[in-house]
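[Automated response] Your request has been received and processed.

Submitted sequence:
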Amino acid sequence: MRKTKAKTNASGIDAEMIREEAATEEFTAAAFEAAAEGENAPVDDTPKPHDVLIEVKNVTREFYRKDQKIVAVNDVSMEIKRGSFVILCGKSGSGKTTLINMIAAIDMPTSGEISFEGKNYAKLSDNGRDNLRRVNMGIVFQNTALMANMSAIENVEFALSIAGYHSEKRRKGSIKWLERMGIRERRNHMPAEMSGGEQARVAIGRALAHSPKLLLADEPTAELDSRTSFEVVKMFRELVDHENLTIVMTTHDVNIMGVADVIYTLEDGRVVDVRTNKELS
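Generated structure:
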């Protein structure tokens, strides 16, 4: 497995510009977090920067199609540090989505271990894993997974309801995050009345509204135009730098790679390359 320094792609999204703006621009996410804060919101335990949030140890995931064994993820190990921006890249079928689903505790490995803040998923009950995900994680699925019978604001409010926020906090926090995503005026529209890009922005706002410790995003910019992609990735970088959010994201966009702290390249279910943009300490 190779370890190299990542290079910023000069075309498309300017990763270096995003890093510089994220580092120097005053970030107002705390206001959105405060607006969304409810009685049952997660307690801020003010962890030390860059301690290990997620540990993946020798994880393999096998599936069977009739009599054929398919190894989707093959003996993968990684440590994801708190407050880091991690990208999983690779061709379709390389195992990115399977791996991110296991990190989310949606799927479980055939062998190996995954831990969140030292808690081994295999030692948690189904309810324990559900609660871990509900409180500590925000997830952006590749197909957005919005509730078709709910408006944009209702989709975000629903996620806050599951996380235990009261009604007045849900409405205020939902509006703030839809505004942050640039679609406040579309808050009462149903998913079918929105473009793919607008749906993606609702999904991202929904994933972030309850102030999770970990954001898992499967191709979050795939349906966005270049300008919106820039704004979303810039916001992700700001959240990492200023709010200590940890992000694990899959993408095919080579122009985004330079924004990440660590880039894992997967091929046939294995990690074949690790690139770093800065030394994490």
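Summary generated for your ticket: The CA atoms of residues 4 and 235 lie 26 Å apart. The domain at 13-37+53-276 is CATH 3.40.50.300 (Rossmann fold).
If you did not submit this request, please reply to this message.
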